[in-house]
Amino acid sequence: MQTLKINGVQHQIDVEDDMPLLWVLRDVVGLTGTKFGCGIGECGACTVHINGAAVRSCSFPAIAAVGAEITTIEGLPQNGEHPVQKAWLAEQVPQCGYCQPGQIMATSALLANNPQPSADEIEANITNLCRCGTYDRVRRGIQHASELIKEKGA
Amino acid sequence: MKNNYLKRRTFLTTSALAGAGLSIGFNFMPEAAFAAGTVTLEKSGVKLGLWVRISPDGIITLIAPSSEMGQGVNTSLSMILAEELEADWSKIKTETAPANSDFKNPDQPMQLTGGSASIKGFWEPLREVGAAAREMLKTAAAQKWDVPVSECKAQSGQIIHAEKGVLNYGELATVAGKLDVPSDPPLKAEIDFRLIGKPLPSLDFPDKVTGKAQYGIDVRLPGMLFGTVRQSPVFGGEVLSYDEAAAKKITGVKAIVPVPNGIAVVADNTWHAKKGMEALNPQFQGGVTQDLDSTKVSKILRTALDDEGKEEIKAEQVLDLEYEVPYLAHATMEPMNCTANVGKNFCEVWAPTQNQEMSMDVTEDITGLDEDQIQIHTTLLGGGFGRRIEVDYVTQAVTVSKVLQKPVQLIWMREEDMQHDFYRPASMSRFQIGLGTDGLPVQWENQLALPSILKRYIPPMGWIGFDPTSTEGASELPYDIPDFDCDYSMVDIGVPVGFWRSVGSSHNAFYTECALDESVHAANQDPFEYRRKLLEEAPRFRKVLEEVAQKAKWGRKLPEGHGLGIALHKSFGSIVGAVLEISANGSNEIKLHKAWLSIDCGKVINPDTIRAQMQGGFIFGLSAALGEEITLKDGRIEQSNFNDYSVLRMNGAPEISVSIIESGEEIGGVGEPGTPLAAPALANAIFAATGKRYRSLPLSKHGIVLA
Ligand code: FES
Ligand code: FES
User: Fold this and answer.
1) What is the pLDDT of residue B64?
2) Range of the structural domain that residue A11 is part of
């Protein structure tokens, strides 16, 4: 039995050494907000935070997250009050929405470290796939969130 | 009403399932069937084809007849209903309809979501449902107050009377539910619309930013098992052998179950199922594509065109062109999956599907149960793009659950999804274009060779070699060309093909709009002016073209290395124009700067949804044109995941601005019509910037890369 701390809650889980965090979250703990898209770290649909850093959970063994703070999309305010969620609604970013938990987790990690990223930094850091093609709005969403954070900080 | 083949019948019920309140729906059953008593109205609730439910707490639920796959249909359809109903927008909720022919789109052959047809098909029925419910609520209030109905007014979820005050819809719903349905409720004048035409935020986005939105893979049932499948890599092959003992040694593996065309491993979680499948290591034999590779595919297409032979062209100047595109995968972000729970006398299915009717059909076939014993629940779809019109994943999940008599969720790994798609057909197109002394085309001979999509559904189309989805977008052009012909050779290759966002237009817009651009340059004219001249008899098209050219400031002086590409195409009833600005740095590196799109889709329900669909559709097309290609070797698909099937990411995506022209003409679609424009706009822009003409896709094959 290992202890995983997910969204502030301790979970006692029996995991094998090679089981990716993604499947522990989805199939064992029952947190289905984190999505499966490729299983090989290419698409970003499974992005979560580990100690605040964006990690693609399909390619990250759950065992390596023991002792760390794991945050999933469910760990963001469930009323949508996080600046990234607010910006996403203001810019009406999603379409099918399937990639969006990953986009939002990747963006919130980026902005936590770098609240005012340049356009180049945004493109270099947010490489999540969106098959619906919401990229133009994701870009605007990130800039919008960045402004919300700036206003709050000022 | 245009549905003269079916007489529409409106009916009302307050049922146990719907609870107290008002429920109303349409039924497209022939009136005669009711009269003859062959259709009973005993079944309750949504099974009756109810479209809207108003409960005593005032919540209004639209039983949405379309699958929501990101095209925003839940919101657009709700807007139509709420408009007529004079509903309070904040009280609107949606549910996707069950499998039931009452929810069939009058514009479709069966209950499915496709062909960008939801608004077109449901515009009238939804307005009538909303108007009928509104009138009934007014009547209920009038009775309660004992005043004439004409003195009652519906507004924002309330019935208002000058002296008596207000009553909320929720308070009136149960009484209204006992009234007769007006057969011909008055519809609002369009000038009085307060929701339709406004960019309202999507109803389901709050759940999509918090992780609450439920897709197919998010279904969780007590005691549910998780499975995954492996199918023959050569299409049509069969399972030869597998190592069951090795698979059963993997922790959590519960069962190995054969499915049509492959085998499933079922375990206590998806990871164990995946590991079990690796240990099972199934081997396959045979198949219809055994000796096929991509070179052979091209050869088959070219031979078909050669067999057709060339036409004789008499003109000042003659162009002779050959174009080609590859197979493409849908690669929806949510891989194929389905959850089924089959018992002795019931079956429930949860599927992210575009096709409720075929899901029901295959479930009936496999389980031997009646329609009454089966429930098909449509979850949100993590992308559809036409892939989910197929129901192979439903067949598999129901098969496995039937064997195990337990709820099972079957998820395909991305590799299966990539290698067992119903692909956009590979195709080839030849043009012989004769230009007159003024440089404009006088003769246009186009020959197309590709496999048919429809013949799998309608075999006789294969016998006669006819498939309008192969030629759509090429067989009719808006341009005034005196001698115009488009011929189609149906070829049979064996690779499964299906509906891929914009279907025939996905290749035909590339072919025709690039071939036309080649004519422009052969005639040494301006691509915008040339098209405009050919559109004198087509004012709707001309307007769309002029609009986009104006927005892009066509004709302006461009920075060094920049080029503008223009394209115009009609699909699914909507006309779209595009201009794309790119730059090239002298080598093969290009950068996409900005795209301008204009659309005339007849009527505008939610302009922001139209914009989003135009943007997303265009990106979908750009992604394919730049780097997507499905190739074959030894009868199998070579690509396996997003590492070798190259999909566009944010760093390559241009900014896209959209202008909407509301012409008031017949309603057109918006989910697909943005896609066809991308490839020709891009290829034409590359030509403008570099002088190089690329006649096959993807461009990455020619060494083109994004800077
Ligand atoms: S599922 Fe993890 S990166 Fe795609
Ligand atoms: S919103 Fe559908 S994949 Fe991104």
Assistant:
1) 85
2) 2-75
How remote is the CA of residue B611 from the centroid of ligand 2, in Å?
A: 15
Given ligand 1 and candidates A21, A42, A73, A100, which is best to mutate, with the most ligand atoms within 8 Å of its CB? A42
Which parts of B498-571 fold into alpha helices (H)?
Answer: 505-522, 527-533, 539-551
B333, A96: Cβ pair inside 8 Å? Answer: yes
Closest in B218, B411, B653 to A136, CB measured: B653
Phi, psi of B329 (to 5 degrees): -95, 155
Ligand nearest to the CA of A97: 2
Task: Report the chain A residue with the minimal C-alpha distance to residue B651.
Answer: A123
The parts of chain B modelled with pLDDT lower than 70 are 1-50
Alpha-carbon distances, residue B414 vs A131, B273, B644 (angstroms):
14, 14, 12
Does residue A100 sit in the same domain as residue A118?
Answer: yes
For each of the domains in chain B, give its residue range(s) and CATH number, in order of start. Answer: 5-210 (3.30.365.10), 216-287+336-411 (3.30.365.10), 296-327+423-706 (3.30.365.10)
- CB-based contact A71:A60 (threshold 8 Å): no
Q: Which two three-digit tokens encode residue B402?
A: 């039937």
pLDDT score of B423: 98
pTM of the model: 0.95
CATH classification at residue A62 = 3.10.20.30
What tokens does B634 get? 């030894």
Residue pLDDT, tens place only, A97-136? 999 999 999 999 999 999 999 999 999 999 999 999 999 9
The reply to whether ligand 1 has any atom less than 6 angstroms from the CB of A129 is no
The token pair at A53 is: 């850093």
Q: Using an 8 Å CB-CB cutoff, list chain A residues near B209.
A: 80, 85, 88-89, 94, 100, 104
Q: Is B459 on the interface with A (CB under 8 A)?
A: no
- Based on the structure, what is the number of domains in chain A? 2
- Helix (H) or strand (E) segment spanning residue A47: strand A47-50
Q: From atom 3 of ligand 1, which residue's Cα is the shortest distance away?
A: A41
Distance B648 CA to ligand 1 centre (A): 16
Give the rounded percent of residues in chain A with a pLDDT score beyond 70.
99
Residue A7 and residue A71 in one domain: yes
